[in-house]
Amino acid sequence: MAVLRLFASVRIAADTGKVDVPGCTVGEVLAAADEKFGKSFAGVAATCRVWLNGEAAIATDAVCDDDEVALLPPVSGG
Fold first, then answer.
1. CB distance 27 to 60 below 8 Å
2. Of 37, 46, 33, nearest to 13 (Cα)?
3. CA distances from 15 to 27, 38, 59 (A)
4. CA 77 distance to own-chain centroid
């Protein structure tokens, strides 16, 4: 199981900042999270940058037990 870390709006959508999620790739981890947290979460998660162990990640990147997948929503300010 990977550790999924959630920040800002995606954290609010999931009502948690950290959860263990199964998957062998980043894409599988994200799909499992979408299924667990529902449509609202999936909509917000789709706008996020994805990181694996502190490095930018893509859906096909392999995930091992205890790896950390992080979702970071876009940041805006003014």
1. yes
2. 37
3. 21, 12, 23
4. 23
